[in-house]
Amino acid sequence: MKIYTRTGDAGQTGVIGGRVDKDDVRVEAYGTVDELKCFVGQAMGFLDKDKFEDLLNDLLEIQHELFDCGSDLALLKQELRPYKVTAEMVDRLEAWIDKYDAETPDITKFILPGGSLASSTLHVCRTVCRRAERRVVTLARTQPINEQVRRYLNRLSDFFFTVARLANSRIDVKDIEYARSANVFRRK
Q1: Whose CB among 24, 48, 153, 180 lies 3.0–4.6 Å from 133's, allowing a Cys bridge?
Q2: pLDDT digits (tens, 9 = 90+) for 4-51
């Protein structure tokens, strides 16, 4: 099998159900999800397998689910096949957030991204996830989408915030509070 097809040389790409311009809002949406999937893989490389086996398993599942998100976003018409991303996937993310949040110290102020390399990269995942969500919101203004993808990405950015803090906490690195932050978080 050849990797190159030459079918995109004129500036269009195939989606499920047709072809669109490579800078189409749909391609921007699923392309940003693909970028996020790559950063998740990078973050996984910075996590110690012994200290983070549970998180590594969850992040691997998230990579698969991000593929599902991209697949649903690449679908021009829902009649072509059922959507892959479900409300149950969002519910499971919430359970993971609650589980990992219980392991982190209380915070009341905004924090600066950083500490460990793993935490920093998980914060990058959070911000790329937010961008993906914005691209999906833009797409949804003009075209039908699987609404669960938008919900999933919204919850996923909260997950990344939580596990970025967890990555620091498990290796005894303190989060750095933003010096001029008001109290914005409620205590647990």
Answers
A1: 153
A2: 888 787 787 787 878 887 889 999 999 999 999 999 999 999 999 999
DSSP assignment of 8-47 equals TTTSEEEEBTEEEETTSHHHHHHHHHHHHHHHHHHHHHTS
Q: Is residue 177 within a helix (H) or strand (E), and if so which, with residue range?
A: strand 176-177
Instruction: Give the domain CATH number at 95.
Output: 1.20.1200.10
Handedness of CA 178, 182, 183, 184 (dihedral sign): negative
d(CA 20, CA 141): 17
- Supply the pLDDT for residue 175: 94
User: What digits encode the pLDDT tens for the residues 92-128?
Assistant: 999 999 999 999 999 999 999 999 999 999 999 999 9
Does this model's pTM top 0.85?
yes
In the chain, how many domains are there?
A: 1
| Alpha carbon distance 167, 120 (integer Å) | 9
| Alpha carbon distance 99, 26 (integer Å) | 34
Q: How far is CA 72 from the centre of its chain?
A: 15
| Nearest by Cα to 29 from 112, 108, 142 | 142
